[in-house]
Amino acid sequence: MSNRKRPLLLVISAPSGAGKTTLCHKLLKELDNMVRAVTCTTRARRGREVDGKDYYFLTEAEFAKRLKRNAFLEHAVVHGRYYGTPKKEAEASLKAGKDVLLAIDVQGAGEVRRQAAAARTGPLGRAFVDIFIVPPSIEVLEERLVGRNEDSEAEIKRRLKVARTEMKCSPEYMYCVVNDSLDRAFNELKQIIAAEHART
To answer: Which residues sit opposite 131 in a β-bridge?
Structure first.
C-alpha cells in the first residue's frame, strides 16, 4: 500500500468578518504542500496585481468560451464582473500530490460540491473536503465588522443580512469551525486536514 497522503481539494467558506482570509493565509504560509487556486476574472487589474499569481485576467469573450467548455469548478458574477476557478489547474495540482485551497462563497462551494459528487471516483470527488468558518455569534460578527472600520453602517447591515443567510448553509458542509480564537480555529483546521490526509 502507498504511504502517499491523499491530496485535498479544500473548500473554505465563511460570512464576511468571520476570519476566513486570515486563516487561509496562515494555512498557505505554514503548509508547504498547499497551493491556492488562482481565480479567473474579467475585472481590470489593480495596482501591482500579477497575471497568473493574483488572478488570471481574461476578456469577457475568453471567459465565455471557457464557461462553454465547462472549464470552471465554479463561477459567479460579482459587481458585473465574472469570476471562476479553473478546473484543469486544480486537477493538475491534485495529480501532483498538492492540496488545493479554494476560499469561496457558499454559492461557489455548492457548485464545487455538486461537481465533486458527480465525479465521486475521480480526482475531484476523492479529494473534496469543505469547511465552514463561523463567528461565535452574529453579535461578535457585527463587532468585528464595525471594528475593521472599513464599511459604512448600511454596508455592515447588508453584510450581516448576507451572513445570516450564509450561516444557514453551514449544515451542508462536512466540517464547521467556530472562530472564537484565531489560534484555536487554526489548530482545528490543521487537525481536520491531517485527519482527511489519513483517509484512504
So the answer is: 12, 175
Predicted local confidence at residue 4, as pLDDT: 61
Asked if 113 contacts 10 with a C-beta cutoff of 8 angstroms, the reply is no
Cell of 65: 468560451
Q: What is the DSSP letter of 169?
A: T
The dihedral built from the CA positions of residue 27, 126, 95 and 91, taken in this order, carries a sign that is negative
How would DSSP label each residue in 97-135? T-EEEEE--HHHHHHHHHHHHHTTTSHHHHHEEEEEEE-
Q: Are 173 and 109 in contact (CB under 8 A)?
A: yes
pLDDT digits (tens, 9 = 90+) for 108-153: 899 999 989 988 778 888 999 999 999 988 888 888 888 887 778 8
Locus of grid cell 500579477: 50
Reading the block at residue 150, the C-alpha cell is 472599513
Sheet containing strand 40-41, strands side by side: 56-57, 40-41, 81-86, 72-78
Share of the chain above pLDDT 90, in %: 61
Please answer whether residues 133 and 13 qualify as being in contact, where contact means their C-beta atoms are separated by less than 8 angstroms: yes
